[in-house]
Specification:
Elements (H helix, E strand, L loop, with lengths): L9 H20 L3 H18 L8 H9 L5 E2 L2 E2 L1 E5 L6 E3 L4 E5 H6 L2 H16 L2 H11 L2 H9 L8 H12 L5 H17 L5 H12 L7 H5 L3 H12 L1
Length: 237
């Protein structure tokens, strides 16, 4: 009788953890594009709720609308481009076509440099880098992984769930290869829209110069801007 126990043996727990991890990976890998776009849209709505979007007559809104005239879509992606009134030098794009540019970045960059940043962020979407980060984030959260596959439909996430997902997706660092591909995409974007490509290199110069200060969001998740500027100049030549 002393050998009987109502507990689970340690080796069984470890095997169960391994099975659970494998299940999360499999579920995240098979999540539908519809569900991923829905998650991106819900994240965008939550970030818009947390941040201040300037009204149409605000100088930042006016400037951004002017420098993105005609950019309602690009490469098959319908775009929703707005500014955030925030001092961080940052920008991001979501898989649903959301593009947000922080006023702190607009203060430092010329119109064409802002355009290059937008092109770079669109590149991450079109090259499915954001989709890959979303799947990695879902692998970390069993509840979200299951939710994405169990019903076959689109699930509305709670604010508490969105907070963790936003942190895992937006704060993750792209690989060097992904950043290089997005930079190349930005150069192609600039050429296609008849914007000056050298603005991409000067944008990286400015990021490099700002590297010693705080609040530089793009430096937290992107590689060395000085090397990126050098590479871009070589590509432009």
């Amino acid at each position: 009788m002393a050998l009987l126990s109502f507990g689970v043996p340690a080796h069984s727990q470890s095997f169960g953890d391994l099975l659970g991890s494998a299940k999360k990976v499999a579920q995240a890998a098979t999540i539908s594009d519809e569900q991923i776009v829905s998650y991106f849209s819900q994240m965008s709505d939550e970030l818009d709720r947390q941040n201040t979007i300037p009204p149409a007559k605000n100088p930042y809104a006016v400037r951004l609308a002017k420098l993105t005239t005609g950019l309602v879509s690009y490469d098959g992606l319908k775009l929703d481009i707005k500014a955030y009134l925030a001092s961080d030098v940052n920008a991001f794009a979501m898989g649903d076509g959301t593009v947000r540019v922080y006023s702190g970045l607009m203060d430092k960059f010329t119109d064409d440099e802002v355009r290059c940043v937008i092109g770079h962020e669109i590149g991450h979407v079109k090259l499915e880098h954001g989709k890959k980060r979303m799947k990695l984030a879902l692998q970390k959260d069993a509840a979200l992984s299951v939710a994405g596959t169990a019903s076959g439909g689109v699930r509305k996430l709670a604010s508490s769930e969105l907070g963790g997902l936003i942190g895992n997706v937006l704060n993750a660092q792209h690989s060097q290869a992904a950043e290089t591909a997005a930079d190349d995409y930005a150069l192609t974007f600039m050429a296609a829209k008849n914007y000056p490509q050298p603005a991409c290199a000067t944008a990286m110069d400015k990021l490099a110069a700002l590297g010693g200060g705080g609040g530089i969001g793009l430096l937290k998740t992107h590689p060395d801007p000085a090397q990126r500027a050098k590479r871009m100049r070589a590509k432009i030549k």
